[in-house]
């Protein structure tokens, strides 16, 4: 059982300038973390993270994720080291494959995403540890590469992955994983098992938030998005024992059929329903050892603004305050 730190995600579609408002307001509300979602070809994680770190004093800032082929690993290590030296202990970098179609658009699609991820994690970690790297790998070839200013405090390296082989590799090369798109207690447990790591392995979750005194109203706000994820057979959903029931509902009657699902279904993959349901979902994540629970507000900036105070309340509750539910 853990008490997850509580954060919020900065959606890829938010205007970059919104960081000037959201980062300080989240910190003032007592929120522990702010995670930036870098997707092609929206806003860039490193520049947003640097701005957020400069505008805050306490809050940790993460990126989920930097595609390992979008930047040379030496440059990625330089960026990570620089931010860590500016704000020791506050930067949480996430690395991953990236969406392969997007990588192909840039001419950077790798023939073996797993091999590239392994080699990238290995050389980035070695550089951050201050080593000179000579590497003649399958994808990465370095000749006497060494950082002039490695970080005084090395950050944990998170892997943003979903599939079984990638999770197994994350258990070998990463310090933790970032789980998204409906990750609840069932999928977290499965992901830990696939990674083969029960200890010294952080889990960060991006979780949906939709709260209303009327459950059906809360469900309706996110049901179309949830239906898409179910139809795409996202791993966080296929891991659920009632996945077939959800899939059949959507196939038969569309997203509206999800509104009649039991409350337990919704709480299994998001902070969705009443406020008590949402807090119960976060508690279930802590029960399976989630370290960082980050609320994903979706693409509506006004909605994200409205969540600053509730997420601050959630952060105080998670750390054992007497905030009422």
Rg on CA atoms, Å:
19 Å
Classify the beta-strand content into a percent band: 15-25%
Largest sheet: 8 strands, parallel, barrel
Question: Poorly predicted ranges (pLDDT <50, ≥5 residues)?
Answer: 321-325
Can you put this structure into words, describing what you see?
- This protein has helices at 19-28, 45-55, 73-86, 100-105, 113-128, 164-173, 185-195, 215-231, 235-238, 243-253, 263-267, 275-287, 301-318; strands at 5-10, 33-36, 60-67, 91-96, 133-136, 141-145, 158-159, 176-179, 202-211, 271-273, 292-296.
- It is an alpha/beta fold and 325 residues long.
- The protein has one domain (5-211, 271-318): TIM Barrel, CATH 3.20.20.
- A hairpin with a 4-residue loop joins β5 (133-136) and β6 (141-145).
- The longest helix has 18 residues, at 301-318.
- The protein is globular, with a radius of gyration of 19 Å.
- Mean pLDDT is 95; it is low at 321-325.
